[in-house]
Write a structure and sequence with these properties.
There is one protein chain. By secondary structure, the protein is mainly alpha-helical. It is built from 27 helices and no strands.
């Protein structure tokens, strides 16, 4: 089967479904062939960044609304390519959709999920999904598979942090399998050890917080330049002090290839505050290796004088379809309530293939043009991204249609708790 993704234009239903847009979910019931588009999206995962973007619940809800059978999703899982391809993401979206279908009371979706745990190439992912559903009945009998296939580190990973929905499943497996019970005991002991450590008073030591705060800025800079284990702590202390030397250190480290110390400098500078603006403006205008950090600071702390630069950066990012680079300017322009950015924000909402960008876009729209944003907040109640649904639930105008949708979000056990809470509060 050819799983190559061809992104359709955002003006088509298929393209909107690929992007996870709420407008597609609202239109799908009235469009012939919508079901085939949903299956195509599940088979050919359209996400720009599969590690960040959500689609499982979005497509599962569409399957429920369109009354689509799970058979084609199962066929994708068990395509012969599963045993030959090296693509770790080929079946992940299908597994996510089946898992969400079970949460939406389509329990027949658990049958191919269990079978894939027993026979599939990426069996562990299916096993984790079944455990996460928290139903010992659905996961019953898989304990022998877990004990036979999982080595000790894998078992420890499966049971670590088992509290929550997985508790009942893990404990039911442990009751029948000594190896799983031993892993569970190790996990509990590790948790108790962490609790004891967290509750123990800390004594100032040579490399501890007290020692760092006793040093001068120049001494901390010297430690930071050593690039050893103590350098990161020194960098964070420089950031906490808003020390000007941290800006000099950034100009030394950021032009070099990525490193843990350069990453520490970036994290420290993100909390540096408005004091970094003069240097950040110079970095952003220079177009060198510090440009990205400069733009990040301007997005977080810039003033209205920085709007033209942020607008130019957003224009450029949208022109080259670099959705990741668009995130910072969108946040900054929204924070500054830059009305001139509204046309670009609307373009980013519709065109972006990076759904994780849309919560930022919707927040920016509600700040810069509340009236214009209303139609987007309504659409956002059907969006694939939790962050969009949460902002939409907070801000969408209450109408007969949105009230029904908020009620569904409130009562849907598959929905994220934060979204359910906001939806419930709007209905009070």
């Amino acid at each position: 089967m050819n799983n190559e993704v061809v992104m359709q234009t955002a003006s088509t239903l298929h393209g909107q479904l690929q992007r996870g847009l709420g407008r597609a979910a609202r239109r799908a019931a009235d469009k012939p062939g919508a079901g085939e588009y949903v299956y195509d999206c599940i088979r050919r995962d359209p996400r720009w960044d599969a590690q960040c973007e959500s689609r499982g619940l979005y497509y599962a809800r569409l399957m429920v609304d369109l009354e689509l059978p799970v058979g084609p999703v199962a066929e994708h899982l068990f395509d012969p390519a599963d045993q030959s391809e090296g693509d770790d993401w080929r079946v992940q979206l299908a597994l996510d959709v089946l898992t969400e279908l079970v949460r939406l009371s389509r329990r027949e979706a658990a049958i191919p999920l269990r079978r894939y745990a027993e026979e599939g190439m990426h069996w562990y992912d299916a096993l984790e999904a079944l455990a996460g559903l928290g139903d010992p009945v659905l996961a019953g009998g898989l304990d022998s598979l877990v004990a036979a296939r999982c080595d000790e580190p894998t078992l420890d990973g499966l049971v670590s942090g088992y509290a929550g929905p997985r508790t009942a499943v893990i404990e039911s497996w442990a009751a029948r399998q000594p190896r799983i019970a031993a892993a569970l005991a190790r996990s509990r002991e590790a948790g108790l050890a962490r609790s004891r450590e967290n509750g123990r008073p800390r004594r100032p030591g040579g490399g501890g917080p007290a020692a760092r705060t006793e040093r001068t800025d120049d001494e901390l800079l010297g430690l930071a330049r050593r690039r050893d284990d103590g350098a990161v702590a020194a960098i964070f202390e420089l950031g906490r002090r808003r020390a000007p030397g941290l800006l000099d250190l950034a100009e030394e480290l950021l032009p070099q290839r990525p490193s843990r110390w350069g990453g520490a400098v970036c994290r420290a500078l993100r909390e540096y505050g408005p004091e970094a603006l003069p240097r950040a403006r110079a970095w952003a205008a220079a177009g060198g290796r510090c440009t990205d950090m400069g733009l990040d600071i301007l997005a977080r702390h810039g003033t209205r004088q920085d709007i033209p630069l942020l607008m130019n950066e957003l224009h450029a990012a949208l022109d080259r379809r670099d959705w990741g680079d668009a995130a910072g300017p969108i946040e900054g322009l929204g924070r500054l309530r830059a009305g001139e950015a509204v046309p670009l924000l609307k373009t980013a909402w519709t065109e972006s293939t990076y759904a994780y960008l849309r919560p930022r876009v919707l927040t920016a729209l509600t700040r810069t043009a509340p009236h214009t944003a209303e139609s987007y907040t309504v659409e956002g109640l059907w969006d694939c991204e939790e962050g969009v649904r949460q902002v939409a639930a907070q801000t969408a105008p209450i109408t007969a249609e949105t009230r029904i949708r908020l009620q569904r979000l409130d009562h849907d056990i598959a929905e994220e708790p934060a979204v359910r809470a906001v939806a419930a509060s709007r209905l009070m």
